[in-house]
Amino acid sequence: xxxxxxxxxxxxxxxxxxxxxxxxxxxxxxxxxxxxxxxxxxxxxxxxxxxxxxxxxxxxxxxxxxxxxxxxxxxxxxxxxxxxxxxxxxxxxxxxxxxxxxxxxxxxxxxxxxxxxxxxxxxxxxxxxxxxxxxxxxxxxxxxxxxxxxxxxxxxxxxxxxxxxxxxxxxxxxxxxxxxxxxxxxxxxxx
Amino acid sequence: xxxxxxxxxxxxxxxxxxxxxxxxxxxxxxxxxxxxxxxxxxxxxxxxxxxxxxxxxxxxxxxxxxxxxxxxxxxxxxxxxxxxxxxxxxxxxxxxxxxxxxxxxxxxxxxxxxxxxxxxxxxxxxxxxxxxxxxxxxxxxxxxxxxxxxxxxxxxxxxxxxxxxxxxxxxxxxxxxxxxxxxxxxxxxxxxxxxxxxxxxxxxxxxxxxxxxxxxxxxxxxxxxxxxxxxxxxxxxxxxxxxxxxxxxxxxxxxxxxxxxxxxxxxxxxxxxxxxxxxxxxxxxxxxxxxxxxxxxxxxxxxxxxxxxxxxxxxxxxxxxxxxxxxxxxxxxxxxxxxxxxxxxxxxxxxxxxxxxxxxxxxxxxxxxxxxxxxxxxxxxxxxxxxxxxxxxx
Amino acid sequence: xxxxxxxxxxxxxxxxxxxxxxxxxxxxxxxxxxxxxxxxxxxxxxxxxxxxxxxxxxxxxxxxxxxxxxxxxxxxxxxxxxxxxxxxxxxxxxxxxxxxxxxxxxx
Lengths: 191, 394, 107
Prior knowledge:
- The complex is a heterotrimer.
- By secondary structure, chain B is α/β, with parallel strands linked by helices.
- In chain B, 40% of the residues lie in helices and 19% in strands.
- Chain B contains twelve helices and 16 strands.
- Chain C is largely without helices or strands.
- Helix content of chain C is 5%, strand content 11%.
- The longest helix of chain C is centred in the C-terminal third of the chain and has 5 residues, at 86-90.
- Classes of the chains: A alpha/beta, B alpha/beta, C little secondary structure.
- β2 of chain A pairs antiparallel with β8 of chain B.
């Protein structure tokens, strides 16, 4: 089982990203959970969301305390929240940032896993003309989990976009380009 | 054929409602059940259901509208949580004493005081003596399945009682999980149509509903409800058996998990049962004879069956996601101990209060519970009632 | 179950099994079976000579105990009149008078 914890701020779509990942993983035949930690809706407040992805049925209904992977949707959280809390030995941290992975790694001096960086906002702006970092982040997360190869992922997502944006087909190609750029551009260093 | 899908508990309930296509839904939005009437109104707008959707100004009115609709002879449903259910309490008793088979999707949330939106069972436990059948669900699958069974139980001529299908707010209502869903036509066929024998809109037989009952009648009316609740036992099992035959998923009053030779058992309801099962598996690996019972049907309470299930057990933890502040543990603890009394004396029990207001419980917490049970059996002392997952000074 | 169209079969000695499910009351107008007339302490007396048939009395009767036939009130329905005296209060012509306690209770 792969357990993932998302850190974002209220309104940034970390929950939506977790649900999208659950959807993508479900399509590969995995058992999935995607759930946010709920509280009063407060725009900008730190929030967490979670995913479990497993080849066997998932019964546990608690939050995730020892994730295999942490996704940081907003890098300003690195100063506010201990995103590394409970992260497994050799786990992965993915940060949405303009900075290089080496620079991000300075925030995790005592970490022995992989630190990944992706400029999801930049990719989104280049391909979609606005800041919608969820799609590129999802692509990078799917790559890091290894739950499916990129051809399968791109083809699944193309179908999903075709359904979702049936009224606005021009949006589909931008989203697909964002996914592809994100898959290739996520870079990592070992912590 | 069932279809594999993934959805939240609220989506699963909404799907069941779309497939059942009840005649009337009256609801007032309250977190975390709000999504259910939202989905219903979308179904209505999209022409997918023929339901009359009544937007009301309070939950008291929602239940009142359901009572009126059900007395008029149609299938009536609602959804609510927490303070919304509390505002219905008065009318819940009216629904059950009028013997109206209303079905409620209850999404459990802590009762206010202090205000909180997260899961615990204080709302439905506050209604546990209202004459409603109460069925609790571990996950989205069970919420869906229980909802498909609800009307057949409620509308059975020997029952004619309202039913609430409960699930844990946010934990299952808003979490996406795998689920098997059934074809619309098979669901419609399983649920069947509702043709009440008596109803207000029958011009050939004029009736009055909800009369004042002086003391010469009130008690006899309650006896009618008492026997209907007794009759519900068999009907629940029969409908569950037919459900298994039709859709392949098995349900009873409760689920026994690795209980065959268990010495240390936990009784728990709803979403935390799955977490407990993972703990049981881990303990079994270590040779601990751990088992778990997940209570599904809380009303009518399967006292004799639970006593039978626990007869080989040395120690039992009864877990309440609600502190009744009774001075005598939680409601489930009190009832289970009463059920065991005189039947399985010698079982040591601890009543745990946990998970209040959305406090998370994880596998490690269950390890601590089984440790307590082992210590108790070894002769160490443990309190009768214990709060876990709470911060306190040592 | 009791014969459901005859609520007269359900009374204060009926076992719970004979009470209708949900307490449903079958058949309209069943209050006629309930003889409230024996609650009466003071009995009204109607004087047809003084009565101008203005019909102010019958709508105020809480027990529908003043029958009206072809726009004319008749004598009281003493099977149901509780003797509340509201009719005597509203009569502008002194055509309704109340007897003393116990007087005429058997009328």
